[in-house]
Amino acid sequence: MLKPDLLQTRMPVMLKAERFSHGVRLSGYNRDTFYRLTQFLESLSLKEPKKLPHGGMVMELKKKYYGLTENYREIFIHRNCYKDLVAYLKQKGIAEYQIDCVEIPLPSVTEASYVVKDLYVLHDYQVPIVDELADTLYSRRLDLQTGKGKTLSALAALAKMGGRCVIMVQPKFFGIWLKALEETYEGFEKGNKRVRQVSGSAELQGLIEEGLAGDIEADIFLVSAVTYRGYIEAYEKYGETLTEQGYGCAPCRFHEVVGAGTQINDEIQDDPGLVFRTDIFTNVRKQIYLSATPYTGNEYVTKMISVQLPEETMCTLPTYDMYINAIALLYGDPSIQSKDYLTPFKNTYNHARYETQMLKSKKRTAAYFAMVKRVINRIYIEDRIPGQKLLVLCATVLFIDRLLAFLKDEYPDLEIGRFVAGSDFRTLQTNDITVSTIKSAGTGQDIKDLREVLLLQHTDSKKDNVQILGRLRKLKNFPNHTPRLTHMACEHIPQALKYMRNKSEHFEGKVLSQRTMRIH
Question: For 223-275, what is the HEC assignment?
Answer without folding.
Answer: EEHHHHHHHHHHHHHHHHHHHHHCCCCCHHHHHHHHCEEEEEECCHHHCHHHH
